[in-house]
Amino acid sequence: MRRRGTTGFRRHLPTVGITVGLALAVAGCSDSGSSTLPDRAAAAAPQGGSALPRSPQERTAAPQAELLGRNGLVLTITVAERDRAAGYLTVRGDLTNNGPETTAVPAALRGNEVDVLRTGSSLAGATVVDFSARKRYYVLRDTDDRPLTTTGLSTLKPGESTRVFMQFPAPPPSTTTVGFHLPLFDTANIAISG
Questions:
Q1: Which of 99, 64, 60, 101 is nearest to 79 (CA)?
Q2: Residue 68 and residue 9 share a domain
Q3: Is 35 among the domain residues?
């Protein structure tokens, strides 16, 4: 009887060793460095993007623009930051309901591109315009055509605010100001840092 139990244990020992080895290999391969691709973790942030921490620049800077939308919605842009190495521009801010009633975030904010429509509510309809180069930039998409912006927006209660972000291809370093547009909202010029 003992011999049989030992044989069973020895038979499973290589399996245990392989499992432990694979677990260590996966842990060793985790990405602890920075990536040159747009922040997909930010794109997959929980609804409203509330998990995105504020950068020191956002905590100290006055809002760059306040865009009025429908039904009391206001988009306050706090930061437009260029990542030169990665080649993208991230615009961050807050979407607030200043109205007296709960307001649905309009579907028009996601734009009308067929690939984006299937991803649900988002701010994928946003654009930035480089006036000097006469170019318009749309929200970036990942390899699955998901927009690199806050998604999962539904309704906002009166006085409720949610953090939002949008990532675009970065204009050339010589461009320091761009026009920002989101469907159903006012437009504004915003300064780029970085």
A1: 64
A2: no
A3: no
pTM of the entire predicted model: 0.69
Answer yes or no: are the C-beta atoms of 189 and 179 closer than 8 Å. yes
Contact 74, 96 (CB under 8 A): yes
| pLDDT single digits (tens) 101-149 | 999 999 999 988 877 778 888 999 999 999 999 999 999 999 988 999 9
Domain range enclosing 2: 1-30
Q: Write b or e for each residue in 120-135: b if 16 or more Cβ atoms lie within 10 A of its Cβ, otherwise e.
A: ebbbbbbbbbbeeeee
- Phi and psi at 180, nearest 5°, equal -115, 135
The residues with which 76 forms a beta bridge, in sequence order, are 66, 94
User: Do 61 and 129 lie in a common domain?
Assistant: yes
